[in-house]
Amino acid sequence: MGGLDIRVPIGLMFLVKGLLLAIYGLMTPPETYVRSLGVNINLIWGAVLIVFSVVMLFLGRKGFKLAP
Amino acid sequence: MNLHPIDWLIMLVYFVFVLGIGFVLKRFTKTSKDFFEAGKSIPAWVAGLAFISANLGAQEVIGMAASGAKYGIATSHFYWVGAIPAMIFVGLFMMPFYYGSRARSVPEYLRLRFDEKTRALNAITFALMTVCSSGVSMYAMAKLIEALKLFDQPFEALGIDKSHIFLVSILLSAVIVLGYIFLGGLTSAIYNEVLQFFLIVAGFFPLVWLGLQSLGGWEGLKERMVALGNQEMVHTWKGMSSADTNSLGVEWFGMVMGLGFVLSFGYWCTDFLVVQRAMAADSMTSARKTPLIAAVPKMLFPFLVIMPGLIAVAITPVATGAPDQTAAISQAGGAPQVGIIPNKLNPSTGQLEPDYDMVIPTLLLYFFPAGMLGLGLTALLASFMSGMAGNVTAFNTVWTYDIYQAYLKKEASDEHYLWVGRMATVWGIGLSMVAAYLALQFNNIMEVLQLVFAFVNAPLFATFLLGMIWKRATGNGAFAGLVSGTLAAFFHHCLTLPAGAVPGIKGGLLGVLHTYPNPMAQTFYTAIAAWTTCFVVTILVSLVTKPRPDEELKGLVYSLTERPAEGHLAFYQKPAFLAVLVGIGVILLNLVFY
After folding, report:
1. What is the rounded radius of gyration, in angstroms, for the C-alpha atoms of chain A?
2. Each residue's pLDDT tens digit, B297-344
3. Cβ-Cβ contacts under 8 Å for B56 (sequence gap 6 or more)
4. CATH match for B5-19+39-317+325-441+563-592 among 3.40.109.10, 3.30.43.10, 1.20.1730.10, 3.40.50.2000
5. DSSP character for B17?
6. Domain boundary assignment for chain B
7. Which of A:2-61 have CB within 8 Å of B?
């Protein structure tokens, strides 16, 4: 067994989710965030997920080899 | 509930990746060892996170948040007393037997150590239990989707009758879990469990952060609890000297022995659902480290799954002018009686009462805007699916190795057993769907089944403990101990009753010799009765029956097994070092939240 480093799909998934959240956070007005204490939680957490995904992809960079 | 397209998109991304992992791993799944044991190739950190994630099912996330709202931070006993000590024990002392023996499953260990009938009893009850547990997860997920009105909007748009939402929810979860396990077997389940672990942290961490910020941090939460008259809800040990002076309603001895020893060690040390993850590790050292690595997030999880319960109790609903969807998920309407927790109608009293199971969904709706709401809901759905998948992979392994290969077709090709495992995944999920529908049709049937499984599981750890430390323990002793322990649990339950309950499923069917302050205390003492009976009967019967010769027990009993070779490891790489760190961590947490 082997060939797929788990950090690759984790990194890719959180990169996509982080980008979606951050872009949506940039597109929405401040009043969207009244309930989340005025914090643009989409933008902030999207950025956190992007950083996390970059770290994961770096750690699993040898896992892009998908051949059995 | 009206979800924004961004929420649907974020949920869709998760499902695409889950199935994608299954498709990628299919090409690596060529033998039955690949399918059932992940080729014994999983690194310790991956196995550790899967070990914890397989246990992170619906009951954990929804149930622990509900308990947090009902009992407060004392619910952490289920982690700091009811999990960590057992996880240290299984890592240091039991994994050498599971991993070092030739066993491919926990029931197979029982055959090697004891005999065929002990294995059969464990394998059959375990297989039934996993199917029912998976069905309960499916049922709970479908009911939650119904309660959240998650599919109402798309169903209306497509012109589909909303009465089909339950069926569609079950089918959807079944197809996704079936897809990735059928393709990639245990490796796929483990990889997805790790994915789900990170997703659950990513979805709930900002929720707790926002909740605590809104209350002025932990100190603000404590002050608010005192103001509400719930000061006992911010302590774990204070008041544990008596059942009357703490929120759990159980005194320290019942909690430590019933939960911390019998139930906890019985689950973490003998349940193949979690042990299977450690048995898939790539070396003996990795296998021993697996539960210890898992113990680190496990001891911190109360802050993610119990803290929301306290936050939901402490928050005062405020009008912000922002859209509020929390009222939309209330089952019974009316202003919340406790914090922001919606009401439900108690069918037996006709009174409104807090619907504690809705704590997490309510907080998600209260704090998260569109976008983050999609992430939070994905985390919630991921927890249901990881619980389901864990049960299905344990089921297909036990069915194939311990029932089919043992009793139906002993000598067949490896390809045949791989095919049997894949088919077991299909009909295991089919049976789970039947169980989910039974739970829907007959309200109490799952409660009865869970009770029966609790009777069967309670004595298990006594059998394993004696089997591993006492070479004189015999197969006849183990079998008699398990049966008598199960009967002891049955009679204890049927002769006792929690205060305020009527005789029936809650106990007292054969009379009431003792009344416990609440169902939790009754459960803990039922487990103690079962374990003690099994322990004593196993010893007595073993002393009058013939033991197996020493040469057959090498690698299965402590005194006849070589210690794992760790001379080549630096001190900080040894499992014992990690165990000490985990032990210190959990002691500190108990002291800080005393």
Report:
1. 15
2. 999 989 888 999 999 999 876 554 455 556 666 655 666 667 888 877
3. B196, B197, B200, B301, B383, B386, B387
4. 1.20.1730.10
5. H
6. 5-19+39-317+325-441+563-592, 446-562
7. 2-4, 6, 9-10, 12-14, 16-17, 20-21, 24-25, 28, 31-37, 39, 41-42, 45-46, 49, 52
